[in-house]
Design brief:
The protein has about 325 residues and is α/β, with parallel strands linked by helices. The protein folds into 2 domains: about 160 residues, D-Maltodextrin-Binding Protein, domain 2 (3-Layer(aba) Sandwich), CATH 3.40.190.10; about 130 residues, 3-Layer(aba) Sandwich (D-Maltodextrin-Binding Protein, domain 2). Helices cover about 40% and strands about 20% of the residues. The protein contains 11 helices and 10 strands. Helix 2 packs across helix 9. The termini are far apart.
């Protein structure tokens, strides 16, 4: 019996090796890099997780690289300095339109969609003692923390609040630092765009009473009509301070690939990540929504042909006009 089991395992390993050997490896890179974000952030942890999986499954050495986040990742992948990267769809659209601050006027059209990652919710936090319980109650000229300069939050949240008619003083910094400033009374609110639960918010509610402020349906409608975001609800229990869904908006994050990478390499990379969600979730909890059915959240960023082929073979329906030629 032991001999049979060993033989079965050998056959399985051999079959897997034969399958990978069957892939056309023409033009495959000797190694690869994944542009992520700041060390300790969600992007770095998530990017490290899938870089390791792709490396193991393809046999190509690779790893995560610390970057300035979505905008810089679009630039690095467009130029080919990084093979892969991660971005939110807002910065992706702006980069395609030549509005990336790294290279103003240059349409970054050589970064292709690879696979859906997860949503980044936009949420507002205030101290209970401030009396602020809604967006409308945020006073004119309020001091608002918008996160690190150039981040997705800093890029879009100020515009969203301006769309809702607010005037404010803009402050930047790391999330933990801004949370501390809020607690010390140096800020009126902090506008977070980060995966929920945001550690800085969880820490705040341990130390003081806070309000997680939701958008009204009308505010939601205004924002989704003006920006590349979708309706979202922060679930009860995400924070101790909420016991009912909190109305918000979110922006999808997508992995991207340099469009010139071989189709077969990107196909195998996508297959490694999307083919075993349990493995991805084990590597990073944020991967719970890294599922094939979310391919349709991208409606404008051209897909890499290798990625499009994998999704269309696995229940997707990516049309030819949205596939990079």
């Amino acid at each position: 019996m032991k001999i049979i089991k060993t033989l079965g395992l050998s056959v399985a390993v051999a079959a897997a090796s034969t399958s990978l050997m069957a892939a056309d490896k023409t033009g495959w890179p000797e190694s690869f890099t994944v542009g992520t974000g700041s060390q300790g952030g969600a992007y770095f942890g998530y990017g490290t997780a899938w870089a390791n999986i792709v490396s193991e499954e393809t046999g190509v050495p690779g790893g995560a690289e610390v970057t300035g986040g979505p905008m810089q990742n679009m630039a690095l992948v467009h130029t080919g300095d990084n093979h892969f990267g991660m971005t939110t769809l807002g910065p992706a659209r702006e980069s395609m339109e030549g509005k990336n601050a790294i290279a103003p006027g240059l349409p970054m059209d050589n970064a292709c969609a690879m696979f859906p990652m997860y949503q980044t919710p936009f949420s507002i936090t205030a101290l209970t003692s401030s009396g602020i319980t809604s967006v409308a109650e945020i006073p004119a000229g309020a001091k608002i923390g918008f996160g690190p300069a150039g981040s997705t939050s800093d890029t879009y949240f100020p515009r969203m609040l301006e769309e809702l008619g607010l005037t404010f003083e803009r402050r930047n910094g790391g999330w933990s630092d801004l949370g501390g400033q809020l607690q010390d009374g140096l800020l009126d609110v902090v506008a977070f765009a980060a995966g929920v639960p945001v550690p800085a918010v969880s820490q705040l509610e341990v130390q003081t009473d806070i309000n997680i402020i939701e958008f009204t349906e009308e505010e939601q409608k205004k924002i989704t009509g003006a920006f590349p975001v979708t309706n979202y609800e922060i679930a009860p229990g995400a924070y101790k301070s909420i016991d009912a869904p909190v109305r918000s908006v979110s922006m999808w994050n997508f992995a991207i690939a340099n469009c010139d990478l071989p189709e077969s390499f990107v196909y195998e990379a996508v297959k490694a990540v999307m083919g075993d969600n349990a493995r991805m979730v084990q590597a990073h909890k944020g991967a719970r929504t890294t599922l094939p059915e979310h391919w349709d959240k991208n409606t404008f960023l051209p897909w890499h042909p290798g990625a499009a082929r994998w999704f269309n073979e696995n229940g997707g329906n990516i049309q030819a006009e949205l596939i990079h030629q």
